[in-house]
Amino acid sequence: MDTDQIIAILATAIATATPLVFACIGETITERAGVINLSAEGTTMLAAMTGFAVAKTTESLGNTPSLLLGFGSAALVGAAIALIVAFGALTLKQSQVAIGFVLALLCADLSSFLGNAFVRIPGPTVPSFNVPFLQDLPLVGKLLFQSDLLVYASYGLIALIWVYFYRTRAGLMLRAIGEQPAAAFARGTNVILMRYVYTLFGGALMGIAGAAFALDFKAGWSHRHTGGYGWIALAIVIFGGWNPLRVALSCYFFGILQSMASVAQSVIPAIPTQVFTVAPFVLMILFLVLTSSEWLERALKLLPPTLGRAAAQTIHSTPPAALGRVFEQD
């Protein structure tokens, strides 16, 4: 395998991971605020259908306006679903897991019902854009700067959210309402209001992820168009330790698994294609299980103490202390 093939695989992995980056960053923000939104699967599907349908029906306005309307409507769908989750969990104080799971199933079926007229028809797609000067850099230019605007937006999102989380006072308060909401409330923060805000924002990013599937990565619309990616996004957030940078790297790792599966399929044609399609999902779940197993704990103890502690901090992840818990704001 030569350098060009490796670059092609990695570039495909980045393109594959881009919708997941938006979905996973959105879920990371939501869960860091203490709310579990399990509707990711249904949200991305309904948003993908809505984004494609709106972009297609407004195609006469031009490619750019129709795409903006498509992504905007998808973001609104994601925020609306997140609002239902937030209202049920924060105002009605019902089970966040149950609400999200029911919405995931409902929205998935609703996307198939409402999107029937748009199945397998061509529509607008996000245009490619090579960044001047940077595209000519050796290796890195082809890998990172010969893509489309959505990929570049995902780079900016990762950097922006990381800085917001760990370099701003607002980010500190976001983490506080997910870890110690009582302490945050004592310092004058309206915990419930802020959880609403971050849940809606996270939902909007999930909606954008859905539109990214239909208008970029898997251009078009079909039944169960984003099937499985919503669930894998929830797993990636855990795998990435609720850290936006680690979550993004986990998305790219999943993208590499999918790219390698495609390569393996061409090398070993005798194996059914379904095996390679499912393999990245199975491998991702296995990695998640292994990083939480006692076997890994024993292996880390065999390392020198300093190296073992560093490895444990890198691998292990602890969810926000107040994640999914009802907070009574008096």
Structural summary, described in words:
This protein is mostly helical and 330 residues long. Helix 1 (3-32) crosses helix 6 (149-167), helix 2 (40-57) crosses helix 10 and helix 10 packs parallel to helix 12. Helices cover 72% and strands 2% of the residues. A two-stranded antiparallel sheet has the order 1-2. The chain has helices spanning 3-32, 40-57, 63-91, 96-114, 140-144, 149-167, 169-179, 181-186, 191-217, 229-239, 244-267, 273-290, 294-301, 305-315, and strands at 128-130, 146-148. The chain is built from 14 helices and two strands. The longest helix is centred in the first third of the chain and has 30 residues, at 3-32. The N and C termini lie far apart (63 Å).
Q: Please identify the oligomeric state.
A: single chain
Task: Give the CA-based shape.
Answer: globular
Q: Helical residue percent?
A: over 70%
Q: How many strand elements?
A: 2
Mean of pLDDT: 86
Low-confidence stretches: none
Decide which structural class fits the backbone.
mainly alpha
Instruction: Tally the helices.
Output: 14
Amount of beta strand = under 5%
| End-to-end distance | 63 Å
Supply Rg. Answer: 20 Å
Widest sheet, order of strands: 1-2
> What are the secondary-structure elements, in order, as H or E?
HHHHEHEHHHHHHHHH
How many strands, what sense, and barrel or not for the largest sheet?
A: 2 strands, antiparallel
